[in-house]
């Protein structure tokens, strides 16, 4: 085993996680070295803006059904087991990891020392050991970066071992298929195999923090982006994938805290878990999203994008490999950021939903009961996109806008958020970044500039000066005017030609909300239950 690079003196792979007999071990390589290795190994190409571009292989997205948690003394009673949190035996973990170690014998590996949580009180050291150089670049981009001195004395708390080319055998290993991500809270390890999708690394640590912080440290963990205005006012944006967390939190007039994962501590601190952003690049343009476009320079890692002809210019409209094309970059690739990535108690919370049915208003102000109802529901809609023959959008309810990453029962997160909203008198807004003028197929996606103007008006207090009306189905309070936004789009019914069709769709969606909420009713107060939409009986 030959070792290269910056390596602290106190720990090693053999004594910490039993990894021995590797080939070369590259410790904490610089981005330039990792880019070089990626190109030399034929794993990636340099683009004309200096970013590197790779293909992640068979998986271009996360595989939630192949994510397991080891069930032992620490987790058995605490985790909300079910379809999302699937049990894995202690013995099975040991056996699978032994086979993984055997596979790694003689292989070159990349080690990255990093940490999560930008608030020193909650800092968690993470060592990522990966088969491929660009996975190490991803970890460098996405997690927080220790100083050279901190690397000298680095003691890892959690380990991630990621080997995309190691395939599990379900018969032997007890996995569902050849790819897997297994979290062991006692050993403090995540092992990932059979998939090169980098999001598994980032969301693995997010799942860990979603357990540790609320369960052991009284910190609410949130699937949200966050930024801070000139007056130091923090805003957070919850939302499921594709609803606009990354897009809407990069705002030239507000400093970015982070684009995806945050904690809200008892002392009011809102802090980023990560040190970078992971943005979608599909249809990205310099005009619509200049900050993200400009962040794609040397050090940034593009995934699964296409190119214009034979050139090295990415074609962001190309979805030949996947709709989920991505780029990771260190947060300082964005010019106006908070350093460190922390803010104070939020003044405004936005729930982002991409309603492809086109019936939720572009913005509405929620009562405390409605805020809890919508948080627990976690509604968005997925459009079929390129799949042939599918024209109807599908409703998605994902509790707390992040169910796949939440090891605890949703009620835990909801209770914490509810009391924080109450104590701090936070404004809560529901934003529909989805369809207007009809459902998917008839209407069109809300213009990004209107959504930005609506959010700005909420943040600057402009919306406190206007009249609101209430819709009959969802009971949502909608403004009747807003600067820089046409008044007629503020009430979605006005944008539909066929009013009867609108009522029918709104009623259908209301029914879906009510049905979804049945599971949570026994945990909810009367105030929350009363905030449910009113389904019209025919
Ligand atoms: P993930 O959790 O997967 O990172 P996300 O919530 O960060 O998802 P974004 O990456 O911001 O989602 O994706 C939103 C996408 O929708 C972007 O491609 C953006 O350009 C597009 N979009 C179109 N119209 C709007 C709008 N009105 N508001 C927000 N985003 C919009
Ligand atoms: Mn995002």
Return the CATH architecture of the largest domain.
3-Layer(aba) Sandwich
Please, how many domains?
3
Strand order of the biggest β-sheet: 1-2-7-8-9-11-10-5-6
Spans where pLDDT lies below 50 across 5 or more residues: none
Percent of residues in helices: 25-40%
Largest sheet: 9 strands, mixed
Q: What attributes characterize this protein structure?
A:
32 strands; 9-stranded mixed beta sheet; 3 domains; binds adenosine-5'-triphosphate; Phosphoenolpyruvate Carboxykinase, domain 3; 24% strand; 538 residues; Phosphoenolpyruvate Carboxykinase, domain 1; globular; Phosphoenolpyruvate Carboxykinase, domain 2; binds manganese (II) ion; alpha/beta
Plain-language structure description:
The structure is a single chain. By secondary structure, this protein is α/β, with parallel strands linked by helices. The chain folds into three domains: 2-41 and 63-217, Phosphoenolpyruvate Carboxykinase, domain 1; 277-333, Phosphoenolpyruvate Carboxykinase, domain 2; 346-531, Phosphoenolpyruvate Carboxykinase, domain 3, CATH 3.90.228. Helices cover 27% and strands 24% of the residues. It contains 15 helices and 32 strands. The strands form eight sheets. Strands 1-2-7-8-9-11-10-5-6 form a nine-stranded mixed sheet, with helices on both faces. Strands 15-13-14-24-28-25 form a six-stranded mixed sheet. The chain has a five-stranded mixed sheet with strand order 3-4-19-22-18. α2 packs antiparallel against α4 (133-142) and α10 (368-377) runs antiparallel to α11. The longest helix is centred in the last third of the chain and has 19 residues, at 499-517. It is globular and about 70 Å long.
